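Hi R.,

Here's the chain you asked about this morning:
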Amino acid sequence: MLQELPKKKKDYAHPTRAQMFWRTQAECLRRAITPCLMYVFMSMIALVMQTVSKGVVSWWSIALGIVCIVCGAVYNAHLCFHTGKKHYEVYLTGEFRRRNEAFGIESGGDYRAHEEFRVWKGFYIGLLTGLPVLIFGTVSAFTRAVDFVYLMFAGWAYLPLAWARQISGNLNINGAWTLFMLLLPIAVSGAFYLLGARKRRTEKEQADARAAEVERIREEQKQKRQERETRVQTEEQRRKTAQSKKKK
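And the predicted structure, written out as tokens:
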């Protein structure tokens, strides 16, 4: 029987440009799905608050709706903060591998180049999180036929427009204004992604500082021990010299 050839493992450490591009897209999209679903979930709760008021806008229903939207943003911030920390950790691993490869040293481990930290990634994740807003907001600028679907899938962006229409009594306010709500996930994701990376960098610097301090103390102790041994040896030599002189 012919021996089956071993399957070739994917090289995540040295991707081609095309592989790097598509893997980065997949990684950012994966990081955007959960906060997007959280926004939708909180939008449903906010929509229930509006239903309880029987279609009449009240300040408490608006306040509760805003709280729901803020809760979605907080969860978005939490996820992107930890994503920033993880991506910066991968960046540090990549720097270590590149230094080793410059000296011809191969490094193992589960390293994925497309997960490395980049400043723009947090903002791009935010853009992907708000992709339904970009789509429905653009369409609603020309027609209100998608308003119901818009409310279901991106109510957190549509509700402020609904409140403005009911408060002002002007039902013809263009849906394109909802595109400004796209700035919410972009700003939150980008800012907390950078904060997460900064937190990880600070932790790395503190760890390096502690390691350097431990090494300094170790060197000082080593030097003191050598000095003490040298002093003991000198005293021993002096004692032997004095004993030899007495014998003479």
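The helical segments are 17-52, 59-102, 121-129, 131-140, 147-168, 183-247.

Let me know if you need anything else.
M.
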